Amino acid sequence: MEADWEFEVGGDAPIIEAHWPGFVNLRADPRRVVELPEAQQLQGLADALARMNATNSPVWTSKTDVFDPGPLDADELDATREEAQHAIACYVDLLMRSDQKWNFPFKAERSCRALCDRLQEIPLRCCRVDLVIRQAHIRPDVNDLGATAYLTACGRSKADARARLAECLAAFAAAIVTLPE
Fold first, then answer.
1. Which residue among 39, 54, 79, 106 is the one 20 to 30 A from 26 at the CA level?
2. For residue 63, how far is the Cα from the chain centroid?
3. Do the beta carbons of residue 79 and residue 125 sit within 8 Å?
4. CA distance 87 to 147
5. Angle 56-57-58 from CA coordinates, rounded to 5°
């Protein structure tokens, strides 16, 4: 699987709002994942979100969405041009379960590098994960960091792209829960 990471902090960079008005706390009640329209829209997303918010996961999620990524470079997804005819993507905002985990940029970088290394070992083509480390508003008056994970997949048909993204989500969630605390 293709995977990469980057920092996008400061200036006009987006900020992860952990407790936004539509926030559904899946850590407290994972069964509420069915309330998320995105989870109903995309096969595999509900299971991935439940797994990422489970008690054995080092992260929790605050927001997700499904979208059309527009034109893409087939090489970036390890796909042929024929396999890149249709694409689908989603993002998931990730925050560390412990308030002290990503309080320094080097900690966020270390975690994202380790996750990308794991993902790159997975033999899954036609998809990629991009992790963007961002400022996060979790607690008042504290500069926390989080990451937005962008997962993109492609296929010869819309159904193929959706199926590949479901596989990508499953692999991503499995890799997340094995990250060291």
1. 106
2. 10
3. yes
4. 22
5. 120
Q: Which two tokens stand for residue 132?
A: 């963007």
Residue 59 makes CB contacts below 8 A (sequence gap 6+) with 52, 53, 94, 95, 96, 97, 176, 179
Q: How many CB atoms lie within 10 A of CB 129?
A: 25
Packing angle of the helix pair 105-120, 158-177 (nearest 10 deg): 120
Q: Distance of CA 162 to CAs 84, 157, 159, 172, Å?
A: 12, 9, 5, 15
* Count of residues in the chain: 181
For the chain, the domains span: 2-177
Hey, what are 100's tokens? Answer: 């002290």
CA-based radius of gyration for the chain = 16
Tokens of 179: 């990250």
